[in-house]
């Protein structure tokens, strides 16, 4: 009797478990597809003061993010009279960024501005879009994320511009190396762009790519090691915000200013000072303020139907904002750096 | 007799009990503060999902810390196992089962090397696992590169399916916590770690093969980190070389909160789960309360110091008696 009861209970539990099992869809792709659900995203007719737009990023204390992305986002919020919140881990920690994003979704904010740090955040972005939250990805594109809009730079182009300028600076010959955060999709695209740009110059010898972990000390150590190992090193290119200052430190300490050509990304005050001092030859800056100010405005427009493309865009499955915006790059060298020093 | 068991002293000294009560109290406060955001099924399932990976690794770390050891390479192993399985599926077209097996075997091998060098050669665990953390992270970078995606559906199913509205990593976590908790409480093999952590010399004299047990502890811990890595890759649908960065410190914090001691000989598997749950709830509250990431680091650091300080105060109180 007891065995029969246990068997029945187990059978009931098994049926319950099997009936409750939900498998993921076989095809998870979706970028660029039209949204065709009945209430594709949440809208509101009148703006309100407690309307909240949330930026979810990683390494939130990175000066580049604080001075550009976050400052522009906050300024936009103040101008619009809406609440802006910035969330994410202090370190470069993508899984924690994902966890933060997933925990923000249930509170249904008016819009989400997500730093496209890694392709791995695609699933969390899909969840936000599925929850009907207007979602803009900025900085780097996240494939298969279903995001409503991407706004950012073309990292391949940023690498290509650096490679082209490096070839000019070296007059088509010499040893070069690149550094940045290895494994990051955007930087790997930058490395590819750099390599493609120097490909037509067979006398330029590519020494390889190095991981400076977005750390000035590590970048300086790698650059110093490269200078020791290759006394005829002709140039180095950097792909994260700290690569440039690190490479510059090593070049200054080796007393090789001007003899080793340096190009790097970003145009923070420290980068500009190094251009002024003649240590760094060329900077490729991003228009980061546009990422977040325009991105937030897109979220606002989407929520409030600023420009309607149909009687009811949300119900019609029309996303009334651009799907992809490439903001372009800012090229800085000794001829125009003064315009950027504030 | 029964009433004596529930005195304030006893509650404070039983970390699993005191942490459980703290968590219940915390949840009640948060429910009152954020009734529409905290006390929802969506949020609850999300908190459990987010703590699942850390908890699986914390279970292995708890076994190590009971035995008076720790492993700083677990975060890198998480990235490595997912990266190896991902690489074999993506670049070598290996069937999912074999790729997962290879990922787990790779993780186990890391644990075996760590354990062997620490137990047989006598390398300090901190030095050995710190070095291994860098080596394994390097391999993870080589394997995953800019991140591997587009895995077969059969792999995605492992971490993205839902059972009773909860995503599968939560079920794996519960199974591992309950299973290993049972083994640690009921089997001689796992009980030996308390003797080793409490007094290694005495354990050796009593006939326990300490070196072999240490190797096993590192192997089990690395295998659990490997399982966590496979689950994380499957859940994200991507193998990231940056996965598991900083995980080791989060896990050690959770385990200490859960009652482990850096000196060894103390701790329970349920404590590891509760430590991770406590941290996950605090994290969740900080996100719901829209507390900036700067403050989140400060608050989590303060919690760790408070937990260790409370441990010391209780130890003093017990030793005075």
Structure write-up:
The complex is a heterodimer of chains A (342) and B (321). Helices cover 41% and strands 18% of the residues of chain A. Chain A is α/β, with parallel strands linked by helices. Chain A has two domains: 47-153 and 288-328, Response regulator (Rossmann fold); 155-286, Rossmann fold (3-Layer(aba) Sandwich). In chain A, strand 3, helix 4 and strand 4 form a beta-alpha-beta unit. The longest helix of chain A is centred in the first third of the chain and has 19 residues, at 2-20. Chain B has helices spanning 2-5, 8-13, 15-33, 41-66, 74-90, 96-121, 125-144, 153-160, 168-186, 188-198, 200-205, 210-236, 247-257, 269-288, 293-320; strands spanning 162-163, 166-167. The two termini of chain B are 19 Å apart. The interface between A and B is large, with 48 and 46 residues.
* Pattern of helices and strands of chain B: HHHHHHHHEEHHHHHHH
Shape of chain A: globular
- CATH topology description of the largest domain in chain A: Rossmann fold
Radius of gyration of chain A: 24 Å
Q: Could you give the distance between the termini of chain B?
A: 19 Å
For the sheet with most strands of chain B, the description reads: 2 strands, antiparallel
Q: How many domains comprise the coordinates of chain A? A: 2
Range of helix content of chain A = 40-55%
- Assign the CATH topology of chain B: ABC transporter involved in vitamin B12 uptake, BtuC
Which stretches of chain A are low in confidence, meaning pLDDT under 50 for 5 or more residues running?
29-39
- The chain-level mean pLDDT of chain A equals 86
Helix content of chain B: over 70%
Structure annotation, total helices of chain B: 15
């Amino acid at each position: 009797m007891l065995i029969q009861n246990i068997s029945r209970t187990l059978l009931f539990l098994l049926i319950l478990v099997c009936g409750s099992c939900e498998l993921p869809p076989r095809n998870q792709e979706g970028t660029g597809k039209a949204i065709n659900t009945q209430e594709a995203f949440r809208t509101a007719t009148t703006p309100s003061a407690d309307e909240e737009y949330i930026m979810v990023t990683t390494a939130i204390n990175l000066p580049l993010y604080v001075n550009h992305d976050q400052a522009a986002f906050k300024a936009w919020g103040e101008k619009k009279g809406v609440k802006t919140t910035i969330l994410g881990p202090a370190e470069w920690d993508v899984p924690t960024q994902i966890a933060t994003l997933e925990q923000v979704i249930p509170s249904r904010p008016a819009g989400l501005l997500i730093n496209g740090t890694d392709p791995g955040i695609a699933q969390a972005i899909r969840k936000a879009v599925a929850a009907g939250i207007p979602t803009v990805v900025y900085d780097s594109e996240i494939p298969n994320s279903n995001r409503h809009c991407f706004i950012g730079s073309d990292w391949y182009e940023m690498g290509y511009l650096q490679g082209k300028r490096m070839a000019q600076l070296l007059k088509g010959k010499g040893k070069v190396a690149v550094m940045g955060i290895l494994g990051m999709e955007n930087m790997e695209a930058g490395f590819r762009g750099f390599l493609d740009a120097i490909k037509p110059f067979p006398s330029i010898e590519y020494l390889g790519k190095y991981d400076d972990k977005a750390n000035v000390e590590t970048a300086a150590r790698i650059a110093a090691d490269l200078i020791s190992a290759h006394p005829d090193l002709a140039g180095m290119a950097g792909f994260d915000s700290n690569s440039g200052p690190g490479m510059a430190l090593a070049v200054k300490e080796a007393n090789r200013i001007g003899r080793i050509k340096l190009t790097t990304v970003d145009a923070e005050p420290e980068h500009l000072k190094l251009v002024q001092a003649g240590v760094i030859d060329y900077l490729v800056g991003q228009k980061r303020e546009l990422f977040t100010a325009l991105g937030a405005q897109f979220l606002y427009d989407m929520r409030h139907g600023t420009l309607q493309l149909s009687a009811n865009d949300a119900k019609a499955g029309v996303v009334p904002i651009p799907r992809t915006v490439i903001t372009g790059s800012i090229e800085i060298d000794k001829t125009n750096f003064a315009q950027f020093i504030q | 007799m029964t009433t004596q068991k529930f005195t304030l002293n006893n509650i404070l000294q039983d970390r699993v009990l005191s942490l459980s009560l703290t968590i219940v109290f915390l949840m009640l406060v948060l429910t009152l503060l954020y009734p529409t955001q905290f006390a929802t099924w969506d949020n609850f399932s999300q908190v459990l999902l987010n703590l699942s990976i850390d908890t699986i690794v914390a279970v292995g770390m708890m076994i190590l810390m009971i035995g008076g050891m720790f492993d700083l390479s677990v975060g890198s192993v998480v990235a490595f196992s997912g990266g190896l399985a991902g690489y074999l599926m993506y670049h070598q077209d290996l069937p999912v089962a074999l790729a997962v097996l290879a990922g787990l075997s790779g993780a186990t091998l890391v644990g075996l090397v760590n354990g062997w060098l620490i137990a047989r050669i006598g390398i300090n665990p901190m030095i050995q696992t710190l070095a291994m953390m860098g080596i394994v992270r390097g391999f993870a970078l080589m394997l995953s590169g800019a991140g591997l995606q587009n895995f077969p559906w059969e792999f995605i199913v492992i971490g993205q399916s839902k059972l009773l509205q909860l995503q599968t990593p939560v079920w794996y976590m519960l199974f591992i916590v309950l299973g290993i908790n049972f083994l640690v409480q009921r089997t001689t093999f796992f009980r030996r770690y308390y003797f080793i952590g409490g007094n290694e010399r005495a354990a050796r004299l009593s006939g326990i093969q300490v070196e072999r047990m240490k190797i096993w502890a590192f192997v089990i811990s690395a295998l659990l980190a490997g399982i966590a890595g496979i689950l994380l890759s499957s859940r994200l649908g991507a193998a990231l070389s940056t996965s598991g960065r900083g995980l080791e410190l989060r896990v050690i914090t959770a385990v200490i909160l859960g009652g482990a001691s850096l000196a060894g000989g103390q701790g329970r598997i349920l404590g590891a789960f509760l430590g991770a749950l406590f941290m996950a709830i605090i994290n969740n509250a900080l996100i719901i309360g829209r507390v900036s990431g700067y403050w989140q680091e400060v608050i989590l650091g303060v919690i760790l110091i408070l937990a260790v300080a409370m441990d010391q105060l209780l130890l003093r109180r017990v030793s005075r008696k």
